[in-house]
Each structure stands twice: as structure tokens, then as C-alpha cells.
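Summary for the steering committee. The consortium agreed at its last meeting that each partner would contribute one worked example illustrating the joint modelling workflow. Our contribution is presented below. We chose a case with several input lines so that the handling of multiple components could be demonstrated. No manual editing was applied between input and output; the record is shown as generated.
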Amino acid sequence: MTLTAVRAKAGGTRERRAPRRRWRHAGTVAVFLLPSLIPLTLYTLIPMVASFWTSLHEWDLITEMRWVGLGNYIELLGDAGTRAAFLHTLYFIAGYLPLVYLGGLGLALLLNRAMPGRRLLRGVYFLPVITSWVVVALMWKWLLNPASGVVNWALGLFGVSGPGWWTDPDWAMPSIIFASAWKDLGFVMIILLAGLQAIPKEFQEAAMVDGAGAVRRFRHITLPLLSPSSFFVVVISLINGFQVFDQVKIMTGGGPGGATQVVVSQIYDLTFRYGRAGAASALSWLLFALVLLVTIVQIRGQRRWVTYG
Amino acid sequence: MSQRIRVAASLAAAALLATACSQGSATKATSGEGGKVTLRYFTFSAAPDHVKDLDKIEKAFEKENPKVDVVVETAPFDEYFTKLQTSIAGGTAPDTFELNYENFVTYAGAGSLLDLDTVKGDGDPSVYVKESLEAFKRDGKQYALPASFSTVVLFYNKDLFDKAGVAPPTADWTWTDEQAAAAKLTDKKKGVFGDFQPVQFFEFYKTLKQAGGEFLSADGKKSAFNSPAGVKAARWLVSKVGKTMPTEAEIGGTADYDTNLFKSGKLAMWHNGIWQFAGLKDAPFTWDVVVEPGESAKASAVFHNAVAASSGTKHGKEAWAWARFLSSSNTAATTRVESSWELPPVADQAVLSGYLKDPKPANRQAVFDSLKSIALPPVIKRQQEMQDAVTKQLTEAAAGRKPVEEALKAAASEVDALLG
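What follows is the complete predicted structure of the assembly.
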């Protein structure tokens, strides 16, 4: 049945239905929606509205809110700290996104082949994804400890003196990027693996018969047919990238010397360290606006490179 | 879009809900059975070394006030004010809580504190040292009662000095003497460091005063530390790092690194507070303290803590009684003295003289001597931001990423912006 036919039928039913029945129908729908509507309203919609309201005020959490209108937004837009936080976030994304995508793609291609222990390996690579960020960040912080970490000890065996992974401002962000990519590789791998397995074998075989080499088959068959999965992974990873926080908070606390202060850690500090909930809310909305914009651009742009079917 | 962005987007507002959930139960149960009042007290100075001592004071108070049940909650200093702030915002503030002087100013100004004069019972104000009591007044109202104070002194490992044939520190030392001794005592091959003084805001405002400088201008409207004295003080702190003191990379974020270094006998001199006395009791070497070396002047940091009651408490009278007991009762004062916790700001010198009876460290008199010339921290409205800005710039200089002059200039402009 085509979609229009379904619509026509549904419309037809509605017209014939008596007003009272219509209300009852709406009531039934409402009852079924209620379980998800209540938490959505309580924990998402109301806090969102409240945070917008807060963003128009100066509020230190202990005194009454004071109306400042768009003052917080204006201040943040001209503030060097905000600019630095956005730049550090973009730096993170620029390192994280290619690393996690290419790494995940590599793993997916590898584990898509028939090989012994394939299931076990898939499980192993997925393990970090379901591990708490606190555990992963503490583990990496320990491994990369400049003074007593395993990584620098191992480098020392080869006569290389390892850098101050999270005490040196030049190395702190790369360390965080690396740990983040390590954790999320499994997620990207699983999604792309599913995408790879959905590609019909006939296409590959037909291309092979036509004499296409492995590289050409990958470029002209695998990649285009994988693009819907790639699109999904990129959108999700990008949003995750904008929200990077847990690993920063635990591994560096935004330091050293503010080198890893990203937008969300700035939001956290503004609220809980500096008692500036209004400015923090405004910054949250700026971040939201940016993520929304980037996502819309991606969805608009997908028709240029995403092939469905 | 994932749920996390929405959480992030509404962090501030979510605090309202979250705190209401996590701490609400304690408020509901403020009146127990038989008309017994449950009084919550939140503190940062008790854990981990002095929980038992606080317990002793609490038991004595409850014996005198059988209708009050004090419930103690503790948090480490780093998290304390975040928790306090959110609990006040969420309307679940503890009835009574500890405040240090820097934060007292903020909270009193915000109207979060109960004017204790409105609920006070019988009690002579002259039991307190007058200056201490005055410090916790705002607009003529007593918003908190001074409970304890402590100072920072120079701890030293006498055995290390003797072994190296270096004369131990005296009260007449200047920075130059400290520097020379530290250089001689540092033995990196053995992992022994000569000196440890954290590079941060609290050490800076004090060394600044030791160098004869001021942190803020006289009217308090501008920073004044970007001066020759400021450069001298900052350079003094920064110059130790990597030479007589471990670098940040060597410390590697280890918790209580300096405490453990001193306890293991591998640190010759250590700038720290007298609250460390109790923890060093069983150190397997001879250690002592002196008043910190000065440069053009002597200046010791004093930390002053008080007990306040929340303006929203339903048990004002009980709150006052507890604050009064905790700050000035004989039990509280002697417990603090005997356990070498912090000093009680009581006027009765006989109580304080008990402090000198403890044989370790030998030169306890230095604690009282350090009070003769003190450096109080500068306090502004946006305190934490100021502290972070100064610490951040000094850290940059300490790591050699910025010349000292440039770091101070940057810190000064940041502080000016916070004042403006």
C-alpha cells in the first residue's frame, strides 16, 4: 500500500468519526504517551525553559536572580575565555572525528572478513563503549601519568623520554583526543560493520567479474553503499564532540593553564565554581545553537554524498 | 539529538531539581520523635583527621542539650562550596555550616546567613578574641561565630639538615637563607627535595606581602600586584620549581604528594599549615617548625573559619546554641588544642597555653609568633575567579611557558576585569 493511500484512508476515518469518539481516541493516545511525556516534561522541557529564563539573569545560586536581559550573551560573545573554549572544542573535534571514523572503519573492514576469533574481537573492541567514562578516563590518566605511567616507562625502555601527557599544554589535548577515540572506536565499528554486512554480495561479485580491483571496488561500491551508516556515525560523533566533558573533567580539569578548557567544562565552572548560573545557561544555549546549526547543515548537505539504496 | 546536550544546556536549572532530590530527605526529618530537634552541620575542616574530635564536641553538646540531635556532614574543601551553594539554591541548606573568611563575605552579602543576634541566648561575647568576633560581623550584624584559626609556618626535617651539615632555619631567616639551604639539601639522585611551596594564589598574596607589596589598591578597586614587589614574589615562588622543588610533571597529579614526600623523609622544608601537626605525630625523624622566612617584611597567612546558620533554618535557637558551643565552649576549645586541630579564637589565654605543652613540634611558640604579623587574603566579590586567574598565570610562569613579568601582567588585567 502506498503512503498516500494510507493517508487518504486515515483522513476518511477521521471525518466520519463522531466528535465524542474523537475525544476518546485522543484520550487513549494521551494515556499511552503519558509515561514518556512526564519525564520528558519534568527533566527536559521544563529545565530547558528554565535554563533559557536563567540565561537572561545574573544568578549566583544563593541570592535572588537579577534580570540582565541579553547581557550574558553579549558578554560571552566578546569574552576571550568563551572564544578559547569554543576553539579548544573545535580542536578536539578536528582530532577526534577523523581518528574515530577512520579507526572505526578500519576495524569494521578487518572484522568483516572471515577470521578466527572474530566474534571475540568484536566484543573486545566494543567493551570500552559500554564502560563508564570515569573508569576509562582514570585508566588513561594513570597510563599516561608523566611521572609514573606505563606509557612513559615503556617509551623509556627505547631511550625516549615521554612528554608530560597531561601536564604539558601542547600534549594535553592530543591525549584527551586519543583516549576519546579509543573509547568510541567500538561504537563506530559496530555501526559500520552493520552497514558493510547490508551491502549485497552480488555487487562485489559483479564488479569482480568486470575486472575491478580491490581499491576500485572499495571506492565505488563499498564506500557509497556505506554512506548512510557513515552519515549517522559522523552526525553522532560530531554532537558527542561538541559535548566533550567527562574525560576533560577527570583527565585535566581543563588545564594545564586552561589548554583543554572546552565549552561544557566552561559551563560547569561558570555554574559550580564561579556561581554564575546565568552566564552558564547562556553559554549552554550558544552551544545548543551551534550544534543545531551544524546538524542542519549536515542534514542539508547529505544529499551530496549519501547514497540510499 | 542525544540527551546529554539537553542536560548540558540546562545544567543550571537542573541543579534546582537534582539537589532537591539528593538532599531533601534530611530537611524533612528535622523534627524527630519526642520533640527532638535534628540539627544538620556541614563542615570541611573535620575530615579526615579530626572526625573523632568533632564527634567528641558533638557528644558533649548533646549531653548539655538533650533535645538536640546534631547530624554532621563532611566534604573535602575542594567540593565543599559547590555542595553548599547547590544545597542553598535547592532550598535544602544545612541548618548550620562552616565558612572560611573569604567565603563568609560572599554569603553574608547574599543574605544566606541568619543574623545570630536575633536568636541568641545567654552568652558573654567577651569569651572570644575581639578581632575574631568582629571579622564575622557585616553591617553591625553577627552573621557567624569564629570557631577556629590556623596559620602557615615553615616545617623542616631536622635530620636532613643535620646530615647535610646545614644550620636549621631560624625566625630571622630571609628568602636568601631559605634558597641557599634548599639548594644544598636537594639531592635529586636520592629523590630528596630541599623545598616545597605550592605555586598558587594563597602563597602569592602572602609572599607578595613578605616582599613589601600589596595585592589590591587602597580603595580595593584595582589590582596592585603587578609591581616590582609582585615580580619579586612571583619569581621567588617560580624559581623553586624544577630546582629545589619537583615540577608538575614529576608530581604527576598525585594526591597529597607533598605530605607524603615530607612524611617519607625526602623533603627538607615544607610551607604548610599547622593542621598538619596531628598527621606528623609518628614521623620517624625529628621535625620542627619556624615562622616563615620573610624578605623585606614578615608575613604569615592566617586562615579563619566560623560557624554560621542558614537564614532558612527552622531551628534558629538550637543553631545558635550549637554554633556557640562549637566555637567557644571549654570542651570545644580544649579538644581543638589537645588534638592539634586548629586554634580556638578564645580570649582565655590559659586554654591556649595548653597548646604549648605538647612536645611535638618543639617550637610550637612559632605558631603564636606567626600571628604577630599576618597577611589576610584579599577578598572580592568574584573571589574564586580571581584565585583561579592568578594561579593559572603563575602556573604558566612556573612551567616556563611565560616570563614572570608577562604572567603577572596578564593576571593583573584579568583581576581588573573581575573588579570592574
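Residues 1-30 of chain B have pLDDT under 50 and may be disordered. Chain B has two domains: 25-149+303-357, 151-302+369-419.
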